[in-house]
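INTERNAL AUDIT FORM
Audit reference: QA-55
Scope: verify that the stored structure record matches its stored sequence.
Auditor: D.O.
Record contents follow.
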Amino acid sequence: MQSIYVFKPPQTESLTNTWIYYRVASIDGDEPAGTLHAPIEICRVSWPTFKDVPPATDTPGITGLASAYEHQCRLLREQWAVEHEESVLIGFLP
């Protein structure tokens, strides 16, 4: 399952063309998707189709229950200056 989020940069919150849509999904790696130690993939998506806007990025190293959120937040901050805590979950894709 893929979670879809939108981040509205605070200084441009009312300008919809500056919003960043992205997805977060567990993917197959050494472990099957959705299980402990499976990597997490983060990718920007287009609005309103939610098609991937390459490149997609996988979390580095082992992703555990405690480290997954931390890895995800760090990648989003480094790649697109997105603060995950300020993003809004808008839905799920299969």
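Auditor finding: record pair retrieved intact. The two ends are 5 Å apart (CA to CA).
Action required: none
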